[in-house]
Input
Amino acid sequence: MTAKNPYRKNAHLSSYQSRQIIRYFAEDISATKTSNLLSMHRNTINSWYNYIRHIIYLHSLQIDKDIWKGIIEIDESYFWPRRVRGKKWRWALWKIKVLWLLKREEKVYVQIVPDMSAKSLLPIIRGKIDTEDSIINTDWRKSYDGLIDMWYKKHRRVIHSKDEFARGKKHINWIESCWSYIKRRLAKFNGVRKDKYVIHLKESEFRFNCRLQDEDIYTMLIKLLKNHAQLV
Output
């Protein structure tokens, strides 16, 4: 009788084989290379990689409910899963809009939004950041004008259009470093299916948070997978 796999329900691999796949995933090695290194079928590796990403996504839904206090940076960016000829401008409707919130030296939070209007952004900010004990740093986007009316009294801004990127502690350099890292990481996939984009984005969020908090990704994944396997 095959022993129960502690990392995935009804898995057909041994615990040792599963840990090898998790280890390569943690090291951000591609599914193709992992398949070659472990002499396993590519479909098996893809199945495990997608499963791990799904668990990370479920984990993110749990921690997204936390309310932040402290110095918070907010920014926005535009992504597209695949390169499209003739599409250059970042405000084009076909791009994916992403809102970024970063608590300095601790964690980042990303969320796909329908547009960059105040109607879309402010409810997310209000639900994530404490109004009393927080200092918010943003650029000069008009969508953030309503933060003062929402009792965020400490709102600092930098004007990128005037080549202003920092004024003492007033900057969003941390968050720009984060999305630069995530953009570079996603680029190596040479295109991501649009319906899979959110789990890849949340995976990158998870990896960056582990870096900020000096946590070992492999250890974190083992813990998450074990906990999830016990729940199903």
